[in-house]
Every structure is written in structure tokens, then in C-alpha cells.
Q: What sequence folds into this?
């Protein structure tokens, strides 16, 4: 049974109803909850909610629980600023359309500005994600990006099958018990049997990597992580290119990995069906796995490093039709939650590569957006930042249209609506 969450406001209404009708049984309260909120929580959940006291005023009644950060006064002032912005646009806070006030860097800067004025210390860039979680901003942010992606690129075939980098974790009851990939095989044995033993052994983030390569090989189209925000249509890119990838900001490699060449990120990739590059990536994953049995480092085994290694090893004939766009196309912004170690590297290092990278950070604090920018990646990386996250959600809560799961067979592909 899928977990059901009530918001703070819904919990308070349930408690008030229970106190106004003390003779009602838990089952009756559960039925009342379903009738009024369209949700059917477990009986034990209803009982626990009713036993708890009615919550006082909260900044965001749509949040799942009352949570207080280290600086509640600052968060209250910051949330009020967001509310004022929403009022100016005549929308709810969660419906702000691509407003800069909800960007990670803007919230981080506003928070520290408030703290500086009130002598309350400082917060790190990683605080922004916690703030958004506390105030219910994350799910609607992803829904907003997903709606915009469909509106912006209506003719695009989205082959986004596994959303491992989003704030919405997709899992059924069995998957919650086992975060490894033994419960379901994304690539059917009759199509890619040589990789099945890897898919069953690696963690789900690596399985998501392999699934996107297999889907792009089998059916083609565009794979895009759920934390992308599309800014202009991709139609011309698809028309003019057989297969395209993109590098992420060079400053990531220089300041975080001490490399002088940009990584090839696998968060957004597109190709025509049947391109041999994807099989080469999967073959290289298999060779590395069979030789080293490396299961923990997803970036190295199945992610960006493997993608870059495969591309750089190809001969000129093989990769002639592969285009690698510069970061301005899809990755104009850096991972703001990683800003502190990048700034520390700027203070510590004095080599030419670091100096140029730090100059770029100072010149483009909110990203290098150009006329070529088609989308921007918000670098949520919940698989690496929220390894202990125990809350799960469903794609149907993010997307307005029915969520379709690809069923790939030897004769073709069907899309099945998820219930």
C-alpha cells in the first residue's frame, strides 16, 4: 500500500473534527478524511494524527509537517517575501512561474542578507533545499518545470523513464524495502540479456543510468531529468543532429575534481533510435563491472565519467555524428549547493585553471545564460545529497497528464499508463 501524507492544514482539520465528535471511531475518522481530502491514510496514521495536539500557526499549511530550522525568524521573513511576490502575480506561492525569487541562489542570498541585518549568522547553499522542503516548495517546483517542458517542446519524444535525480522518488512497496535493483528489470532479458546481471546488482541510481542508455538505443528521443527547466523548443536541435550530449560547467571539474576538462553530463541526452554509441556505453559499463565489481560509485561506473570515457575513446568515424554542446545550452548554472567547496578552492588555489574558473563564478553568479540556452539544470541530486531520504512520491503527483511506462518488446514499444 502506498504511503499517504496529509498536510499540516489537513491534519489540523482532522484533529478539530475528532475533538468536535469524540465518539467517532478511527475507521469513521478515516472515512471522513477520504471524503474531505481524497486521501485514505492507514488507521494507525489517523490515530497518531488525532492523538497529537493541534498545530499552531505555520508558514506553509500545505507542508507535510511542522518543521523549524535553525533561524525561524529569518525563515518567516523570507517566506513572507515569497508570499508578497506571489500576491503581486496573483498566484499561490507554489504556482510562481519561473520566478527568480524561488531560485536556489536567490533564496540563499536573501537568507544571508536577512541574517546579516539581524546579526544571526549565515547559512550554507545546502540550506536552501531544507528550507524548500520545510515549506512545501519542492513538489510544485518540479511540477512547474514538467508542465513548462511539455509546453515548450510539444513535439519532443521524452524518453524519461527513471527519475532518479528529482525530489520525487518513485517506488512501490517492494522497492521501499530494497533500494537495490533486484525487484524489476528495466531492460527486458530478450533485448539486453548481457547487461541483466549488472542491472540486478547495482543501486537504483546506476540502474536509472543504464535504463536511459537502453531506451535511447531502442526507441530514441530525448532523455531529460525531472529537475530541468526548459526555456525554448528543442525541435531544431533534433532536426539537425543525430545524437547530442552536453558538457556541464567547466568550473565543476576544475574546482571540485581538479580536472581541466569539462564533464559530459548524462542528465539530458538525445539521439535517433539504434545509434551504436549507447551500446558502446553499456558494453563499457559491463566491462568495468565484470573486471572491478565496482558497485558504489555511480558517477564512475554508469554516470558522467563513463559517458565521457566512452566518447573520448571513440574513433573519428564512429563519433562524427555525435555533437557535444557547450554548457551554455543546457547547464548555464552551477550546483549552488556545492558553492562552498568551490569558493574554498578559489581561496586556496592560485593556478591558472582555478583563477579562470573563479573569475567565471564571480562574473556569472546566477549562471551564464545566452541565446543558445535551451534549458537549465537545477542540480537537485537527491540521490547523492539525500541518501537517507525516507519519503516517497509518485509521478502522477507531479505531471498533469497520465504517466506512461514504456514496455519494450522485440517487436516494438508500448506505453502503459501507471495507476
A:
Amino acid at each position: 500500500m502506498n504511503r499517504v501524507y496529509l498536510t499540516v492544514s489537513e491534519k489540523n482539520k482532522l484533529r478539530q473534527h475528532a475533538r468536535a465528535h469524540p465518539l467517532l471511531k478511527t475507521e469513521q475518522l478515516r472515512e471522513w478524511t477520504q471524503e474531505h481530502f481524497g486521501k485514505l491514510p492507514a488507521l494507525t496514521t489517523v490515530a497518531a494524527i488525532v492523538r497529537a495536539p493541534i498545530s499552531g500557526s505555520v508558514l506553509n499549511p500545505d507542508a507535510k509537517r511542522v518543521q523549524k530550522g535553525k533561524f525561524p525568524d529569518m525563515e518567516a521573513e523570507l517566506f513572507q517575501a515569497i508570499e508578497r511576490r506571489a500576491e503581486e502575480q496573483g498566484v499561490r506561492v507554489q504556482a510562481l512561474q519561473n520566478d527568480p525569487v524561488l531560485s536556489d541562489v536567490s533564496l540563499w542570498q536573501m537568507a544571508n542578507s536577512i541574517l546579516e541585518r539581524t546579526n544571526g549568522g549565515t547559512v550554507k547553499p545546502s540550506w536552501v533545499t531544507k528550507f524548500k522542503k520545510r515549506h512545501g516548495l519542492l513538489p510544485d517546483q518540479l511540477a512547474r518545470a514538467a508542465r513548462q517542458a511539455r509546453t515548450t517542446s510539444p513535439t519532443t519524444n521524452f524518453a524519461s523513464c527513471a527519475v532518479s535525480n528529482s525530489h520525487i522518488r518513485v517506488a512501490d512497496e517492494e522497492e521501499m524495502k530494497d533500494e537495490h535493483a533486484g525487484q524489476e528489470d528495466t531492460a527486458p532479458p530478450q533485448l539486453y540479456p548481457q547487461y541483466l546481471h549488472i542491472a540486478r546488482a547495482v543501486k537504483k541510481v546506476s540502474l536509472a543510468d543504464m535504463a536511459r542508455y537502453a531506451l535511447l538505443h531502442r526507441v530514441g528521443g530525448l532523455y531529460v531529468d525531472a529537475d530541468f527547466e526548459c526555456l525554448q523548443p528543442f525541435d531544431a536541435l533534433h532536426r539537425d543532429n543525430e545524437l547530442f550530449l552536453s558538457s556541464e560547467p567547466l568550473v565543476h571539474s576544475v574546482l571540485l575534481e581538479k580536472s581541466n576538462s569539462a564533464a559530459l553530463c548524462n542528465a539530458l541526452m538525445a539521439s535517433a533510435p539504434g545509434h551504436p554509441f549507447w551500446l558502446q556505453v553499456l558494453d563499457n559499463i559491463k566491462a568495468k563491472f565484470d573486471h572491478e565489481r565496482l558497485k558504489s560509485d555511480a558517477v564512475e561506473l554508469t554516470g558522467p565519467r563513463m559517458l565521457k570515457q566512452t566518447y573520448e575513446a571513440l574513433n573519428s568515424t564512429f563519433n562524427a555524428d555525435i555533437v557535444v554542446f557547450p554548457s551554455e545550452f543546457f547547464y548555464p548554472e552551477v550546483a549552488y549547493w556545492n558553492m562552498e567547496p568551490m569558493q574554498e578552492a578559489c581561496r586556496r588555489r592560485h593556478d591558472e585553471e582555478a583563477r579562470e574558473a573563479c573569475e567565471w563564478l564571480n562574473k556569472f553568479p546566477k549562471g551564464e545564460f545566452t541565446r543558445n540556452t535551451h534549458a537549465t539544470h537545477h542540480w537537485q541530486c537527491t540521490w547523492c545529497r539525500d541518501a537517507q531520504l525516507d519519503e516517497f512520491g509518485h509521478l502522477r503527483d507531479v505531471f498533469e497528464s497520465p504517466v506512461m511506462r514504456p514496455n519494450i518488446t522485440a517487436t516494438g514499444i508500448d506505453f502503459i499508463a501507471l495507476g
Summary: Residues 185 and 340 are 39 Å apart (CA to CA). DSSP finds 18 helices and eight strands in the chain. The chain has three domains: 8-51, 72-136, 141-417.
